[in-house]
Structures are given as structure tokens and as C-alpha cells.
């Protein structure tokens, strides 16, 4: 489908949002920015909370699609997660539905499946060893739980209202990985923009769940559903591997904070044996 012209970018002041503000205009998009905090140098940005339904209705008016990044991006109390990530995402979808917006990119997270053990083997792993998007959700935190809710909400709004969504289980989107775990789940900002563009322009996505990472040599999960959208990642974390392994050592699968997708979000080991 043709590239949407005007995109509402929620969470525009955050880390991923800041990268996309710089990169997406090169794909021909006009961005309407939304965040709970003011964005320096962006006087036209909408400063509002996701609980403000009137502000959301105004924000989605006339846009072609939404990239929904807003919310709490770390673990917090259930009450705070409920308000920002669960109720806030519902408010966003309701505003989009009412305005007739037909496409959403929802920022899900690897923490929706955080208690999934990472695959064993010498990288690069064969395709059959990679973690598929169909793997059972195993959230590692209230934050991860909220991302699972968002994926289910996206499915409901597709089935019931015809609002399409690509739910992207983002790994770690930074200029460079900062630990050994990130070597397997890192997504460069440039690849993040490529994935967003593919998700916004692919035809008939319905509700599609994809993993968001670069073409990492040490990749843990299956990118086939993202590639089916037209995503062609260009970057690889292996350029940082020697330096990070020299500093931190290889991952130890016996340690819960290292042996599962959720990494440091796992403050306690699972209570069942594996």
C-alpha cells in the first residue's frame, strides 16, 4: 500500500521515539508528536497524558496511521502499569477507531515472552532453533503483561473493528548494544525505521506479530513474519561482540537474568524446573 503521509507518533520524547523523529521523515512521513512531557524544539507537539481522551481524539484526527510507543517502558507497580500501558493503550485504540484510522504499529516487547529460555547453540542458529512469534506468551513483569494485553487488544480491534496492527516485540533499540544479551536482540535505530516503514506500508496485515531486531549473527528469534512485511534489516550487532564479551564474558544460561529472554527484568527465577 502507499506510504501513509501523516503519522501520529506517541511517546515521541522517549528513546525509540527520538530516533524515529529523526529517521522517519526521510521516508516521506509527516509526524504529529504526542508525549506526556514537552519535546524540546517541537512547539507543535501535543503534550498530554494517554488518560486524556479528548487530547487523543484531537491527536488522531486526520492522521493516516499511528505508531504507539507511549507508556511506561520499565517495570513499575501494577497500578501505574494499568493506567499508562493498559488503559492508555485502550484509550488510544478507541480514539483511532472513532477517527477511522486503519493502521497502528504497536510497540510490544520481548518482555511479553520474557520467561522463554533463550535457545542454545553456536551462532548463527539454524532457522528451526529460533524462537517463533507463535511461542506461548510468558511475561516476566507487569510491564511484559501489559504488552501481552496490547497484543490481544490489537487482535480484538482487528477482528471486531477492522483496525489493522503490526505488534512489534522490540528487543533493545539503541545506537549500540551495551551488554552481551543485547547482541542477540539489538535493533539499530536505522533498522527500527526500516521495520516501521515496512509495517506501515505492507498490504493486509490484519494483526501481525513480529520480533524487532537487526540481522544479528547471534539472533535468538525468528524474523520471518517481519520479513514477510518487506522488512530487510541491514545491521548486525556482531561488530560490538568482541568488546562486550571481553568486558562481561559470555552469557551463563544457569543464571535466570542471563538465561531467559527477559534478562535483567527477571528479578526471581521461575518456580518450576526446566
Describe the structure.
By secondary structure, the protein is an alpha/beta fold. Helix 1 packs across helix 6 (189-201), helix 2 crosses helix 3 (78-99) and helix 3 (78-99) runs parallel beside helix 4. The model has no long low-confidence stretch (mean pLDDT 94). Helices cover 34% and strands 14% of the residues. The protein has helices at 15-23, 53-60, 78-99, 142-161, 182-185, 189-201, 224-227, 241-248, 256-259; strands at 6-10, 30-35, 46-47, 65-68, 103-109, 164-170, 207-212. It has 9 helices and 7 strands. Strands 3-2-1-4-5-6-7 form a 7-stranded parallel sheet, sandwiched between helices. It has one domain: Rossmann fold (3-Layer(aba) Sandwich), CATH 3.40.50.720.
Domains, number: 1
As a percent range, the share of strand residues is 5-15%
Strand order of the largest sheet: 3-2-1-4-5-6-7
Gap between N and C termini, in Å?
45 Å
Q: What composes the largest sheet?
A: 7 strands, parallel
Which CATH architecture?
3-Layer(aba) Sandwich
Structural class: alpha/beta
Overall geometry: globular
For the record, the CATH class is Alpha Beta
| CATH fold name | Rossmann fold
The helical percent reads 25-40%
Number of beta strands: 7
The average pLDDT value, as a whole number, equals 94
Uncertain segments are: none
Look at the structure and name the CATH superfamily. NAD(P)-binding Rossmann-like Domain
The total of helices stands at 9
Rounded to an integer in angstroms, the radius of gyration calculated over CA atoms is 18 Å
Order of helices and strands: EHEEHEHEHEHHEHHH
Amino acid at each position: 500500500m502507499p506510504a501513509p503521509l501523516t503519522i501520529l507518533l506517541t511517546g515521541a520524547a522517549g528513546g525509540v521515539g527520538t530516533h524515529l523523529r529523526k529517521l522517519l521523515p526521510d521516508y516521506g512521513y509527516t509526524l504529529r508528536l504526542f508525549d506526556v512531557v514537552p519535546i524540546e524544539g517541537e512547539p507543535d507537539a501535543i503534550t498530554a497524558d494517554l488518560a486524556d481522551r479528548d487530547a487523543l481524539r484531537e491527536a488522531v484526527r486526520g492522521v493516516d496511521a499511528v505508531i504507539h510507543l507511549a507508556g511506561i517502558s520499565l517495570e513499575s507497580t501494577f497500578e501505574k502499569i494499568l493506567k499508562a500501558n493498559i488503559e492508555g493503550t485502550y484509550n488510544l485504540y478507541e480514539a483511532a477507531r472513532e477517527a477511522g484510522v486503519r493502521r497502528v504499529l504497536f510497540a510490544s516487547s520481548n518482555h511479553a515472552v520474557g520467561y522463554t529460555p533463550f535457545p542454545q547453540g553456536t551462532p548463527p542458529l539454524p532457522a528451526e532453533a529460533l524462537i517463533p512469534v507463535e511461542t506461548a506468551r510468558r511475561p516476566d513483569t507487569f510491564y511484559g503483561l501489559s504488552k501481552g494485553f496490547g497484543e490481544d487488544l490489537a487482535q480484538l480491534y482487528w477482528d471486531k473493528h477492522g483496525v489493522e496492527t503490526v505488534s512489534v516485540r522490540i528487543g533493545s533499540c539503541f545506537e549500540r548494544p551495551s551488554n552481551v544479551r543485547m547482541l542477540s536482540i539489538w535493533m539499530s535505530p536505522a533498522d527500527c525505521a526500516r521495520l516501521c516503514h515496512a509495517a506501515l506500508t505492507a498490504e493486509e496485515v490484519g494483526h501481525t506479530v513480529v520480533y524487532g531486531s537487526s540481522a544479528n549473527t547471534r539472533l535468538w528469534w525468528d524474523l520471518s513474519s517481519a520479513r514477510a512485511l518487506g522488512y530487510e534489516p541491514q545491521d548486525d550487532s556482531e561488530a560490538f561482540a568482541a568488546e562486550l564479551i571481553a568486558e562481561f564474558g559470555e552469557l551463563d544460561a544457569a543464571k535466570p537474568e542471563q538465561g531467559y529472554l527477559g534478562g535483567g527484568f527477571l528479578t526471581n527465577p521461575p518456580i518450576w524446573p526446566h
